[in-house]
Amino acid sequence: MILLEVHNRIIEELLTTQIETFLRKEKLVEIKTDVVDFDGALYHITSSRDKPFNVSIKLKFYRDIEQYGTDEVLRREYGDLLVTPLEGYNVTLSLDFNNQLPKGDTNEAWLPLVRKIAMLKRNCFAAVFEKYFEFQSKQEPTTGNHKRAVIHYRDDETMYVDASSDRVIVIFSTVFKDADDNIIGRVFMEVSRTLVYKQEPTTGNHKRAVIHYRDDETMYVDASSDRVIVIFSTVFKDADDNIIGRVFMEEFKERRRQFQQAPQVIVSYRTPPEELKDMPDARTGDNIGYLTFVLFPRHTKAAARDNTINLIHTLRNYFHYHIKCCKAHLHAHMRHKTNEFLRRLQLARPEVKKNFRRGATNAAGDAPAGLE
């Protein structure tokens, strides 16, 4: 299994090409394109000879995450690259090659900036996690007045993130689109059922973050004195996704036995976990799944924080990406087996012998009688 990149490669490659062209003092290629990313993210990219390189992003859930300090995080990361958003978009970055490009003799001088711009979506997501990591690091007792993060990251799947002082819990709801997904997904999720964990009553004054990062999926984030809880809801769109998805979810339990330093993972099907019992809008159904991640101080400390954010915010995409890969592998294997069976049947087919009757000829080689 592979980890998905946290940056957008199309943005990175386009910007790298434009900068290299500019440094060679060649004419810049005019760019005007739209790029679609995971979670319904839409980028609009423009660049020309006499205008800056502009990247705008539109997120359906931006209003959900904005209240957790997204604007402050973006100002910290991008500074004067941040400009007034393009109409219809949430954030716009503008890079003037003449004035804002880092100086240096090698590309190592400006490549970090290119990567940072390509991580725009990740940095929008980062604010909610950083906020709840801070709640945890300060060991603020929770009182139930803080908001759990609820992110509807798909039309019918949700991610929930909650936090306490020593962990962050992430719960995904997921929809299994077909019967096979439902079966395999439930197998994955059932493996971790014995790890069921109930959060102690919250006693702090912060609200649980609720991020609707897809139209039908939400992320919840909450914190207590010893943990941060992140909950993703996810929807399995078809039965095959449901089956395979549950198999994957159950695998988390087995993996944690090998890696004791990994976050605790709690899996639930059909109904929300205990942490969401006070959330009336949490989805239920046979094709709904919840993934809860309990993050402890070792995961949220300053040295590990960025890596934790990189991994946790791509969890839903990572999960469904590998469901699709598994289905593709199964389909390819079935096609291979079908071709093999057809080949064997062809080899087993009896050969038909054809009999030809030849007419007798006379010694002179004349045609037989009656054929003149």
Give a quick summary of the entry.
The protein has helices at residues 9-23, 62-66, 70-78, 111-118, 120-137, 179-191, 239-258, 297-300, 302-312, 315-348, and strands at residues 31-36, 42-48, 51-58, 82-83, 91-95, 146-147, 149-154, 157-163, 168-172, 176-178, 207-215, 217-223, 228-235, 237-238, 264-269, 288-295. It is α+β, with helices and mostly antiparallel strands.
> What is the CATH level 1 assignment of the largest domain?
Alpha Beta
Overall, the morphology is flat
Overall tally of domains: 2
Largest sheet: 6 strands, mixed, barrel
Element string (H = helix, E = strand): HEEEHHEEHHEEEEEHEEEEHEEHHH
Helical percentage: 25-40%
Number of helical segments with 4 or more residues = 10
Q: Strand fraction band?
A: 15-25%
Head-to-tail CA distance between termini: 80 Å
Pick out the low-confidence regions. 194-203
The CATH topology name of the largest domain reads Yope Regulator, Chain: A
Write out the strand line-up for the largest beta sheet, numbering strands in chain order. 7-8-9-13-12-11
How large is the radius of gyration? Answer: 29 Å
Tally of strands: 16
Mean pLDDT: 83
The CATH architecture of the largest domain comes to: 2-Layer Sandwich
Helix/strand/pairing class, anyone?
Answer: alpha+beta
